[in-house]
Recover the amino acids of this structure.
C-alpha cells in the first residue's frame, strides 16, 4: 500500500507540537518532586493547549488520531501521578483531553482508551469507589470535566464504543457508564452551581442520544426520571435557576422519547395488543450477569405507571411565571402525546390538560411545529380528553374561587378560557358544557364576592362634581370604578374574569347565558342577585362588541339572534330603571346593585344616542339623586353616568343636560318636598341642579322655595335638616346674585356706592362763591322777615273748578309735547308707580327675610352659613332701597347680636355680614350703630382688642415700646372714670410718648403714656403691650382673627356709614396702632377727618419731622414728634 506524504502544514504543526511535548515528557518522567516543576509543566500544557486550539480554528482537517496519541503520551504519564500536581494542572489536562477527543480521535477512539478515559472522568468527578476522602474540585474544573465527558460520550457513540462487539467489553462499559450516569444525576440534584448542573444535563442528554441499545437505556431510565422529576418539583424547584429548569425539561423530553417512543417499543405494544392479558410481574426485572432489563409488556406497563407519577409532579410547572419554562413544558407534553401516544396512554389525560393550559392564542404558531389541534386530527380520542378536562375545569371553578391564592384563581380562569377557545376551534359543541358553564360562572362570581373583604374607603363628603365639556370623548369619561372585586390585589383576577366573559363562546351562546342570568336576577336576592345581574350585563356588552355588520349581512340566522339580543337588552334596562326609581335612603339596598343599574343606563345611552332622550324623564332625576348618596363609590358612579349620558344624547355638557331637562326635574323635587318625602339626597340634587344651571334656573324655583319654607316651618326643630335646606337656599343666593336680570325690570343697572370721600378743594374761587351764597341767603332771610304778615285769604287759592278742569285737559293733551316749562311741571307733582320686581329679586328678598328667624339656631355652622348668606345677598339687593332697607331693619337685631356669639368663627362671620350691610345700606345704619355703640358695641371692640393683645403676647411678642395713643374728651370718657373730668378748666393736655395721667393745680389732666399708665386703660392699650408668654398661636389665634374681623368692620363703618365726632374719635383710638400699616383703613379715616388722623400719628411719632420755616422777624417753634399738645376749650 502506498504511503501518503504528509502535508507541509501538518509537518509544521508537528514540529511545533514536538517543541512543547519533548520538554513536557522530560519534566513528567523526572523522579524529582513533581510540585517543584508544576509551574513549568503548567506553562507547557497551556502552550500545548493553545497550539491545538489555534490549529482547530485555522484548519482542523490535519488533526488526526496519530497527533492525538502523540500529545496524549506525556498526558498519560502525568495522569498516573495526578495527585502530586496542583488542581490547575489537572484542569488544563482535562481541557486538553476534551479537545483531543473532539478534534483528534473523533470517531476512531479505541474501546480500551474510551473506557480508561470514562473511568478517569468518573473518578475525577465522583471519586474512586471506596475512597473515603474526595479531593475538592473547583467549579471550573468540574465544568471542564463534564464538557470533556460529553465529548467522550458523543465520540463513543459514533465509534460504537458504548456497545462494543465483544461481550467482555460490554460488561466493562455498562457498569462504567452506569457509574458516570449516577455521578451526573447526583450533580443535577445536589444543589451545585448552575454551570455544573447544565454541564451534567448536557452530558446526560448525550448518553441517551448516542446509546442505541434500548435495554441499556431502560436500565438508566428509573433513576434518571426520578432525579429529573426531583429537581423539577418543589422544594428544589424554587431553589433552581430558570435556565436549569428549562434544560431539565428538554433532557427529560429526550430521555422519555428515546426510551418509550412508540417506534422504540412497537414490539412490546404488539405483544400487549396480542395477549390482552394483565402481567403478573409489574416490577422491573434484570438479568443476573449483564445488568440488562428484560423488556416485556409488564415492564412497559409498570414503567408507564411510574412515569405518570413523575409527570404529575413535573407538570405543576405549568403555573410557573416564566414563559420559557411554560414553552419547554408545552413541548414536552406535545412530544409525549405524539411520540409516546400508545406507550404512555395512561398519561394522556394529564398531558392533554397541561397542553390546554399552556396554549397561548397570542403566540405566533409555526407551521413546522406540532400543536394539540394537529394531534386531535391524527388521534381523535384526544378530543374526548379535551372535553373531559374542560368539563372538570368548569365544574371545579367555583371551588377554586374560594382559594386565598390569587394566582391559582387566575390560572383556573385562564384554563377555562383556553379550553373553551380550543373546543370552539375544534367545533366541539356540547349542551352539557354550555349549561354547566353558566352555573359555574355565577357560582364563581358569588364565591369571589363573598370572600372579598369590603374596601375601606373614606367618606369624602366634599366630593365635587366634574362637569364634562365639549371635546371630551366618552371613553375618557366612562372610567367606572369596579363594582365587584374592587380590591387592588384582585385587579388581575377581575381582568381574567372579564376576558373569560368577553371571549366565551359565540354571541348566540352569550345571549343565551345572559337570558339565563336574568332569570336568576328575578328569583334571587343578595349576592346571588348581584352576581347574576353583573354577569348578564357583561355578557350583553360582549355580544354587542362582537357583532359585525358584515357578518349580519351574510348570515341570515343573525336576524333571530339580533331580535333575541334586543329583547335581553330591553329586559335588563327595564330592570335597571326599576332599581333606580326604587332608590330610597331609608331602604337598605345593596349599593352594588344600584351601581350596576347606573352602568346599564349609561350603556343604553351610548347605544341609543339621541333616541335615549325620552328615557331621561324616568332616569335622570334618580341618577342625579345618587349624587347625594352617603356611599362615595355610588356618587362616583353617578357622576360618571351623567358625564356619559350628556354627550351620548347630544349635549355639550352635563350643565346643558340638566338645564334642558330642568322642568321635570324641578317638578320631581317639588313633588317630593310637597309630600315631605325629603332626604339629604333631594337637597343635594337640588343644589347640584342650581349649581349646574346657574342663574337661568332661579326664576323657576318659586314653588320649590315655597316648599322649602313650608318644610322649615314644619321641621324647624331638626338642626341638621334645617342646615341642609339652607344649603339649598345659599346656593340659590349664590347663583341669583350672578343674574343679569336681578335688578328691577326696566331699571338701569347702577351699583350702589355709599363710600365717603374727602371733600375736594376748589380754591379761592370756591371760597368766594360760598361767601356769595351766604350773603344772598342772609339778604333773603332779611327781606322775608321785613314783610308784614297778611290776614287770612279772602278767596280760594288757585283757579275755579271750570278753570281747573280745563287746566287738567290741557295738561293731558300736552303730556307728550316737548319744551314744556319747568315751572308748570313743578306745579303738578305726580307720584311715580312702583316698578315690579323680577322673580329672582323677589326670591332673594324672601330668603334674606327668612334668615332672621334661624340666626338663633343652636347649630353654629348654620348660624355661620346664614351670616355668609347675608353677606352674599346684601350687595345684590341694595339697588332697590324701598325693598332692601326694610329687610335690613328686620335682620339688624339678630345680626348685631351674633357679635357676642360664643363661637369665634360665628362672630367673624357676623363682622363680615355687618360690613356687607354697611356697604349696601350706607347711612341708613348710622343711628343704629350710634345706639349700639353706646349700648355695648364699644366695649365689645375694646374687649376683642385686649384679647388679641393677650394672644399675640403669648407668642413672645410682648413688652417693648408702648405706642402712644391720642386722647380726646370722648376717649377719656370711654376709659376713665367720670369724676376725673370734674376740674373747672376745659383744657385737655394730649400726651406725648412719655406721659402719665396726673392732675395739675388748675384742674387740667396730663396723661403720660408710660406702660403702666396705658395698660391701666384697656381701650388704649396696644396689642403689643402685654407681658410676654410663650407657646401661643400669635396672629393665628382665634382672638387675633376676631380682632382682624372687627377691624374690617370698623373700616366698613367709617367708609360707608356716617358717624359723629365722638364716635369717630373712639374708633380712631381703637385702631390708631394699625393705621400706619393699613392703607385702606387710613384712607377711610382720613376721608372723615384727616387732621385728627395726622394729629394721632404725630403724637405717636409716625409723622416725619419737617424743618421749621424761616421768615425775617418771626421765630417758629421746631416740629418735634411725640410732643404733648395743649388743646384749649372755649
Amino acid at each position: 500500500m502506498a504511503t501518503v506524504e504528509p502535508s507541509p502544514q501538518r509537518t509544521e504543526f508537528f514540529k511545533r507540537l514536538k517543541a512543547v511535548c519533548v520538554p513536557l515528557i522530560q519534566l513528567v518522567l523526572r523522579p524529582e518532586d513533581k510540585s517543584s516543576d508544576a509551574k513549568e509543566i503548567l506553562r507547557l500544557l497551556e502552550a500545548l493547549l493553545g497550539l491545538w486550539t489555534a490549529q482547530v480554528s485555522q484548519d482542523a482537517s490535519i488533526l488526526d488520531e496519530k497527533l492525538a496519541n502523540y500529545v496524549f503520551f506525556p498526558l498519560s504519564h502525568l495522569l498516573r501521578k495526578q495527585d502530586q500536581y496542583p488542581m490547575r494542572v489537572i484542569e488544563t489536562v482535562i481541557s486538553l483531553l476534551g479537545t483531543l477527543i473532539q478534534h483528534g480521535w473523533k470517531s476512531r477512539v479505541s474501546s480500551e482508551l474510551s473506557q480508561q478515559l470514562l473511568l478517569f472522568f468518573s473518578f475525577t468527578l465522583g471519586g474512586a469507589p471506596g475512597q473515603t476522602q474526595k479531593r475538592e474540585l473547583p467549579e471550573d474544573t468540574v465544568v471542564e470535566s463534564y464538557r470533556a465527558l460529553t465529548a467522550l460520550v458523543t465520540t463513543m457513540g459514533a465509534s460504537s464504543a458504548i456497545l462494543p462487539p465483544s461481550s467482555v467489553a460490554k460488561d466493562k462499559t455498562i457498569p462504567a457508564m452506569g457509574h458516570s450516569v449516577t455521578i451526573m444525576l447526583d450533580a443535577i440534584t445536589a444543589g451545585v452551581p448552575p454551570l455544573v448542573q447544565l454541564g451534567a444535563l448536557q452530558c446526560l442528554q448525550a448518553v441517551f442520544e448516542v446509546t442505541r441499545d434500548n435495554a441499556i437505556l431502560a436500565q438508566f431510565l428509573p433513576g434518571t426520571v426520578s432525579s429529573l422529576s426531583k429537581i423539577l418539583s418543589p422544594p428544589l424547584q424554587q431553589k433552581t435557576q430558570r435556565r436549569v429548569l428549562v434544560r431539565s425539561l428538554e433532557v427529560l423530553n429526550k430521555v422519555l422519547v428515546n426510551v418509550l417512543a412508540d417506534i422504540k417499543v412497537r414490539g412490546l405494544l404488539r405483544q400487549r395488543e396480542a395477549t390482552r392479558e394483565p402481567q403478573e410481574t409489574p416490577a422491573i426485572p434484570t438479568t443476573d450477569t449483564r445488568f440488562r432489563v428484560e423488556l416485556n409488556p409488564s415492564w412497559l406497563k409498570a414503567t408507564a405507571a411510574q412515569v405518570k407519577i413523575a409527570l404529575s409532579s413535573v407538570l405543576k410547572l405549568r403555573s410557573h411565571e416564566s414563559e420559557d419554562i411554560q414553552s419547554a413544558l408545552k413541548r414536552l407534553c406535545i412530544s409525549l402525546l405524539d411520540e409516546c401516544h400508545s406507550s404512555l396512554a395512561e398519561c394522556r389525560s394529564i398531558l392533554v390538560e397541561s397542553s390546554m393550559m399552556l396554549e397561548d392564542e397570542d403566540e405566533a404558531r409555526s407551521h413546522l411545529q406540532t400543536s394539540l389541534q394537529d394531534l386531535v386530527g391524527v388521534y381523535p380520542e384526544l378530543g374526548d380528553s379535551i372535553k373531559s378536562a374542560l368539563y372538570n375545569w368548569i365544574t371545579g371553578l367555583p371551588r377554586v374561587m374560594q382559594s386565598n391564592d390569587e394566582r391559582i384563581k387566575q390560572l383556573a380562569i385562564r384554563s377555562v378560557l383556553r379550553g373553551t377557545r380550543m373546543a370552539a376551534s375544534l367545533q366541539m359543541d356540547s349542551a352539557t358544557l354550555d349549561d354547566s358553564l353558566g352555573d359555574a360562572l355565577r357560582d364563581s362570581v358569588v364565591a369571589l364576592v363573598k370572600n372579598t373583604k369590603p374596601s375601606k374607603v373614606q367618606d369624602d363628603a366634599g366630593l365635587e362634581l366634574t362637569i364634562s365639556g365639549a371635546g371630551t370623548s366618552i371613553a375618557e369619561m366612562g372610567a367606572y370604578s369596579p363594582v365587584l372585586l374592587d380590591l387592588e390585589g384582585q385587579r388581575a383576577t377581575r381582568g381574567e374574569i372579564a376576558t373569560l366573559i368577553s371571549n366565551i363562546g359565540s354571541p348566540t351562546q352569550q345571549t343565551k347565558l345572559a337570558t339565563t342570568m336574568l332569570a336568576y336576577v328575578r328569583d334571587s336576592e343578595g349576592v346571588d342577585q348581584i352576581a347574576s345581574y353583573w354577569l348578564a350585563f357583561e355578557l350583553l356588552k360582549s355580544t354587542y362588541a362582537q357583532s359585525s355588520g358584515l357578518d349580519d349581512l351574510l348570515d341570515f340566522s343573525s336576524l333571530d339572534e339580533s331580535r333575541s339580543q334586543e329583547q335581553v337588552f330591553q329586559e335588563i334596562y327595564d330592570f335597571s330603571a326599576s332599581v333606580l326609581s326604587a332608590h330610597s335612603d331609608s331602604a337598605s339596598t345593596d349599593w352594588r346593585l344600584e351601581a350596576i343599574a347606573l352602568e346599564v343606563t349609561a350603556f343604553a345611552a351610548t347605544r341609543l344616542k339621541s333616541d335615549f332622550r325620552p328615557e331621561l324623564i324616568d332616569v335622570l332625576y334618580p341618577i342625579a339623586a345618587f349624587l347625594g348618596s352617603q356611599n362615595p363609590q355610588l356618587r362616583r358612579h353617578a357622576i360618571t353616568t351623567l358625564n356619559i349620558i350628556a354627550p351620548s344624547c347630544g349635549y355639550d355638557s352635563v350643565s346643558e343636560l340638566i338645564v334642558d331637562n330642568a322642568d321635570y326635574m324641578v317638578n320631581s323635587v317639588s313633588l317630593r318636598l310637597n309630600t315631605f318625602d325629603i332626604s339629604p339626597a333631594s337637597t343635594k340634587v337640588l343644589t347640584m341642579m342650581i349649581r349646574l344651571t346657574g342663574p337661568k334656573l332661579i326664576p323657576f324655583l318659586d314653588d320649590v322655595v315655597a316648599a322649602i319654607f313650608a318644610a322649615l316651618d314644619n321641621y324647624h326643630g331638626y338642626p341638621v335638616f334645617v342646615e341642609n335646606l339652607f344649603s339649598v337656599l345659599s346656593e340659590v343666593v349664590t347663583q341669583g346674585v350672578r343674574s343679569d336680570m336681578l335688578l328691577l325690570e326696566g331699571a338701569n343697572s347702577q351699583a350702589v356706592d355709599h363710600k365717603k370721600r374727602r371733600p375736594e378743594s376748589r380754591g379761592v374761587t370756591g371760597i368766594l362763591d360760598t361767601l356769595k351764597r351766604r350773603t344772598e341767603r342772609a339778604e333773603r332771610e332779611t327781606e322775608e322777615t321785613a314783610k308784614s304778615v297778611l290776614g287770612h285769604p279772602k278767596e280760594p287759592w288757585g283757579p275755579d273748578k271750570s278753570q281747573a278742569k280745563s287746566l287738567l285737559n290741557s295738561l293731558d293733551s300736552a303730556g307728550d309735547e316737548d319744551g314744556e316749562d319747568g315751572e308748570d311741571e313743578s306745579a303738578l307733582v305726580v307720584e311715580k308707580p312702583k316698578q315690579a320686581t323680577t322673580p329672582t329679586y323677589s326670591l332673594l328678598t324672601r330668603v334674606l327675610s327668612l334668615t332672621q328667624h334661624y340666626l338663633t339656631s343652636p347649630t353654629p355652622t348654620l348660624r355661620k352659613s346664614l351670616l355668609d348668606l347675608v353677606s352674599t345677598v346684601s350687595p345684590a339687593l341694595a339697588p332697590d332701597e324701598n325693598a332692601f332697607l326694610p329687610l335690613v331693619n328686620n335682620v339688624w337685631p339678630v345680626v348685631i347680636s351674633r357679635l357676642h356669639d360664643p363661637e369665634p368663627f360665628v362672630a367673624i362671620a357676623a363682622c363680615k355680614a355687618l360690613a356687607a350691610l354697611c356697604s349696601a345700606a350706607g347711612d341708613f345704619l348710622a343711628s343704629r350703630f350710634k345706639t349700639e355703640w353706646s349700648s355695648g358695641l364699644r366695649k365689645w371692640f375694646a374687649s376683642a382688642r385686649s384679647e388679641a393683645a393677650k394672644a399675640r403676647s403669648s407668642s413672645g411678642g410682648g413688652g417693648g415700646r408702648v405706642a402712644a395713643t391720642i386722647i380726646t374728651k370722648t376717649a377719656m370718657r370711654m376709659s376713665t372714670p367720670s369724676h376725673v373730668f370734674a376740674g373747672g378748666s376745659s383744657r385737655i393736655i394730649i400726651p406725648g410718648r412719655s406721659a402719665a395721667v396726673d392732675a395739675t393745680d388748675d384742674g387740667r389732666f396730663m396723661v403720660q403714656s408710660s406702660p403702666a399708665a396705658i395698660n391701666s386703660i384697656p381701650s388704649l392699650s396696644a396689642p403689643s403691650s402685654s407681658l410676654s408668654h410663650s407657646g401661643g398661636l400669635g396672629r393665628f389665634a382665634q382672638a387675633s382673627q376676631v380682632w382682624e374681623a372687627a377691624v374690617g368692620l370698623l373700616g366698613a363703618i367709617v367708609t360707608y356709614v356716617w358717624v359723629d365726632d365722638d364716635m369717630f374719635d373712639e374708633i380712631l383710638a381703637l385702631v390708631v396702632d394699625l393705621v400706619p400699616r393699613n392703607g385702606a383703613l387710613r384712607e377711610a379715616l382720613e376721608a372723615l377727618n384727616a387732621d385728627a388722623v395726622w394729629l394721632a400719628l404725630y403724637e405717636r411719632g409716625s409723622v416725619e419731622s419737617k424743618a421749621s420755616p424761616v421768615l425775617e422777624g418771626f421765630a417758629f417753634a421746631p416740629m418735634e414728634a411725640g410732643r404733648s399738645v395743649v388743646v384749649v376749650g372755649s
